[in-house]
Amino acid sequence: MLNDEEVKTGQIADLDLQALWMPFTANRQFKKNPRMLVAAEGMYYTAKDGSKIMDGTAGLWCVNAGHGHRQIVEAVQQQVAKLDYCPGFQIGHPDSFELAGRLADLAPSDLNHVFFANSGSEAVDTALKIALAYHVVRGEGGRQRLIGRERGYHGVGFGGISVGGMVNNRKFFGSLLPGVDHLPHTHDLGHNAFSRGEPGWGAHHADALESLVALHGASTIAAVIVEPVAGSTGVLLPPQGYLRRLREICDKYGILLIFDEVITGFGRLGASFASQHYGVVPDMITMAKGMTNGTVPMGGVLVRKGIYDAFMEGSDSGIELFHGYTYSGHPLACAAANAALDVYLKEGLMTRAAELHDYWEDAVHSLRGLPHVIDLRNVGLVAGIELEPRPGGPGERAFEAFLSCFEKGVLIRTTGDIIALSPPLIIEKKEVDQLFGTVAEVLRSLA
Ligand code: PXG
Question: Whole-prediction pTM value?
Answer without folding.
Answer: 0.97
